Predict the structure.
Amino acid sequence: MTIGFSVEGSFDRALLKGLQQRWCPAAALLEGRFRGTTGQSARREIPNVCVELCAKGADLIVFLRDANLEDWRVVVRAEENRCRPEHRHLAIFGVCDRNVECWIAADPDWLAQETAHSPEEFRGHDPKDAVWAALGIVGRDRKETEIIALVQRAPLCNWLNNASFADFYDKLWQKSKEHRCALENLREEPVP
């Protein structure tokens, strides 16, 4: 299986790679353009990326972006409506409720243990600065390898407390059945 993707930045790419390596390690990743940097209007960006990635053999296309100050549900609907009907069955839209760092900090106690920081640092409305500081990210230094490894170790069942991650996970879960990926069932309680 080949998973095409289009994200807003390298932090988002690292998160997506961590999820792919955890859930579908045999899949090949096919990177599309970074979102919003092509000079295209938002109306044409998604259809053009779908055409590009399908031409390169993508079996599935994942779009990931931040909602910033908008309601993530409204952003998801708008993104889905920009996708042409012939590509909708291939596309999954993930919209982080504020930014991708909100997903990383969805389990502040675990993240605090991983980074030797206080969980309170990650409990704010926008934990981006705290996450970057805890991971030692400065400017453009995104530490992609470390972020991928962090996502691979994360207790993702706790990330389901974040509604936008839960929405993204549920879409991936449905697609995993079609593509025979071993996506872990985060909805079942672990057996002690």
